[in-house]
Amino acid sequence: MTKTETKNILVYIEVAEGAPVKVSTEILAPARAIADQKDGQVIAAVIGSGIGDAAAKVAGLGADKVIAVDDAAYADYNLDAYADVLAQLIEKEKPEAVFIGGTQDGKDIAPKLAAAFQTGCASDVVATALDDGGNIVFTCPLYSGTILTDMVIADARPQIATLRSGAFKKLEDAKAGEVVAEAITVADDAIKATIRESVKEITEAVNLEDAEIIVSGGRGMGSAENFKLVEELAEVLGGVVGATRPAIEDGWVPRNHQVGQSGKIVAPKLYIACGISGATQHLSGITGSDYIVAINKDEDAPIFSVANVGIVGNALKVLPVMIEEARKIKAQ
Length: 332
Prior knowledge:
The chain is an alpha/beta fold. It is 27% helix and 24% strand. The chain has two domains: 3-190, HUPs (Rossmann fold, 3-Layer(aba) Sandwich); 213-331, TPP-binding domain (Rossmann fold, 3-Layer(aba) Sandwich). The strands form four sheets. It has a seven-stranded parallel beta sheet, sandwiched between helices. A five-stranded parallel beta sheet has the order 14-13-15-16-17. It has a three-stranded antiparallel beta sheet with strand order 8-9-10, covered by helices on one side. The radius of gyration is 21 Å and the shape is globular. The relative contact order is 0.12.
């Protein structure tokens, strides 16, 4: 695939429980910006079973065309099958670039597609632009987010990238596009692995990526008993509980609550960090937050470098006061 035959931007829309995931709707914005500059279109691809509502929603969020591949064969996510469907769409649509949300599934699909088309893959993109040659400049964090670097896929096409959740804001008042149903069959020999049985851990469902308020606790909370203060504040505020890796490893809260480079990348409206020092691995996962409140007794803790409001004090004394005041406000 050459540069002269490509123009449009293809966006893979991941669906969970019948609805497009947050990051998939966010990355329509940079796709729209790049497509407009190149006088191209944004083509969204939705794969699954019973995805009509999800496809219709995406059509109103900035895509010119939404290709809905709706088939019972795709009811359950399978990396080989989904990647093959996207590969067939890429062959047909010949996009300039393929944007994929930086979810666990997205980070599996993107390199598989890049290998299939012998092209480059930018990971964890936080900004996009065009250079003088018409190539997309992907800005990516390195070394746990301590530096940013620009990456260009100069000649190979399509340019493939996974984009970070929270790095982009959804388009406002986007023009509605059309939904087109398309039947795509995956050959049996394209499926290298099949799921014979799924065994799920019995734990509460946690959606950190879509949460508007997250209250997180770290090693500074001291114990599982003290960590209940984090849970109580989250409950009062109508938020979700997050945690750092040490709190997870000590067994204070299940692993699906982990925030950071090795956990979930989050972008809530409000992030409250309790007893978290601010290691780079954690900070790289919260930089998309609109407002950060940090509580730590060490005034030199790195978490204060990214906080909008810093409270120097013992979280075990500060949190009960915050919980009490929050309850008073809710009672008014």
